[in-house]
Every structure is written in structure tokens, then in C-alpha cells.
Amino acid sequence: MKGKILSVTVAIMTWFGAVFFVNAYQIDCPQKIKVKEEVENMPDGWEVSDDINSLTVPFSSMIVYHGKPSKKVSLKPAKGTVDGKKHELIWEVDFKADVEPYYVVCSYNVSRIELIKKIDLSMKSCWADYSKNEQGKKGTLTCSTSEAKDLY
């Protein structure tokens, strides 16, 4: 009897773990970043204005790259379905051992600053969700181990 209860408990925990893993992998772009302006090789007699020494820059958008973003291989998003739900911006990120991983890039207004983060290698598709709250625009990249379907 103990063995049966233990088996059922392990099966339930495994199922919850799988559901949590598939549905919970998200990358949230920071909504705002603080940027400190710094000038290298300041010419004699010049100084940086106190007004722009530090500014808070709001989130703007995100995009997915194949390989490091510096290589400029951005992926074009598609519309389609993942895990039975329709999404407007889907990227296929099915990692193969002989190619480079995928990255998400978060861009910020009034700045050339971009934050990058590697997407977990076990993911097969990701989609973008944009929303707004009292702090401004928000971007979340949600990923799944399921493949995207009905892409167009």
C-alpha cells in the first residue's frame, strides 16, 4: 500500500512539475533601467551636465536572435498557436547541438542600451506579450517545450 501511495505521489508531483516548467518559463524585460552617462577622454575645460548624468530609461521592445545579438541574425516573428493558444508574435527557438543558442534582446527608449539573455536550450517556441501598468510598457517572453503550429 505504501508503495502505491508513493508511486501516485511521485506521478502527481512529476505532472505538476512538468506543467509548471512548460507554462512558467518566462523572461521579463526590466521595465526601466537606470543609465549613468559617462564620457571617456573628457576634453579639457568640459564637464557632463548634472541634468543628464543619470537617467531612467523605459522599456521599448524585444526581439529574438539566433546566436549572439552582435552577429545581427534576428528572427522574424510569426502568428500561430502554441499549447493550444493563439499568439501574434511567435519565434521558433528549437536548439540543435550543432548551432548557436537563441537570445532575447530588450531594448530601451532614448538609448542604445540593450539587455540580452540566453533562452533556455530546452525550449522550442517563445512568444511575446506586451502590456502596460502604472510604470509604463512591460514585455514578457514566454517559452514552451512545445512546437508552434499553424504559423503564418
Task: Name a few traits of the molecule.
4-stranded antiparallel β-sheet; alpha+beta; about 150 residues; 5-stranded antiparallel β-sheet
User: Major sheet: order of its strands?
Assistant: 1-9-8-5-4
End-to-end Cα distance, whole Å, is 52 Å
Principal-axes geometry comes out as: elongated
Tell me the structural class.
alpha+beta
- Indicate the percent of residues in helices: 10-25%
Biggest pleated-sheet summary: 5 strands, antiparallel
In percent terms, what proportion of residues is strand? Answer: 35-45%
Spans of at least 5 consecutive residues with low confidence: 6-22
Number of strands: 9
Q: H/E element string?
A: HEEEEEEEEE
Average pLDDT confidence is 83
Number of helices: 1
**What is the radius of gyration?**
21 Å
Can you walk through the features of this model?
The protein is an alpha+beta fold and 152 residues long. 15% of the residues lie in helices and 42% in strands. It is built from one helix and nine strands; from the N terminus they run αβββββββββ. The chain has one helix at 2-24; strands spanning 26-28, 32-36, 54-66, 78-82, 85-92, 102-108, 114-118, 125-133, 136-144. Strands 1-9-8-5-4 form a five-stranded antiparallel beta sheet, with helices on one face. The chain has a four-stranded antiparallel beta sheet with strand order 2-3-6-7, with no helix packed on it. Strand 8 and strand 9 (136-144) form a beta hairpin. The longest helix has 23 residues, at 2-24. The protein is elongated, with a radius of gyration of 21 Å. The model is unreliable at 6-22 (pLDDT under 50).
